[in-house]
Task: structure prediction
Amino acid sequence: MGEAKRPWMMQVDRDAMVELLKNELELDPRRTAVVAIDMHRGHLDPLVASEPVDPEAAARVLANTSRLMWLARRCRIPVIHVVLKYRRYPTPAFERVASPFKRALDKVKQRMTGVGSTIREHNVEGSPQTEIPPELGPAEGDFVIDSKKRLSAFYGTDLEILLRVLGVDTLLLCGVNTNTCVLCTAFEASNRDMRVVVVSDCVASLYGNDLHEFALQNVARCLGWVLSLSEVEGRLACRAEDH
Result:
């Protein structure tokens, strides 16, 4: 007879676990906010993007996030735009190349993602890359935080203060990149004991679909919930009529 498998060697049905966890999720519009991370033209507008996502992914994210924000505003859920912006002086994006990795990329003249990608010219203040696409807003009543300089939407910004003042403990995260800024913000929110929901139709990565999918799995298995836009709409639709 073969040796019996020890408990830590047993197979775990992670898909079933993820589905069961969805039954435990409640979205209360009064305690929820949409946080749009780096949904700016620097990623999403092929005409000016300095670190562009694939055009098809950009179109998908813009269309779906527009729907998400429409629903949020109808439910009186705060919409918070967090935008990366670097100072122009003394040299463009000098704050960015303070990072050893980004400085090395700049030194070896390698682009982050391919055509159009640049280390030094990405989202410098006053550039069109820092603008929010008009289909997303900002609409009246939205909040804009444009002091983001690193991967986390919390680090170096007043996002945590704003969420606390608004009475929010549940975040609907959307944005670019799934595996960097969205994932880092998900970790940071989880560290603050917030309820984390990544809307899968409203995120994309310019680093490749493999890392996009990895990030979604990482959230769903370890940090919070990954819901499609339709699932979010289904959970909030009945309450939208009450506002």
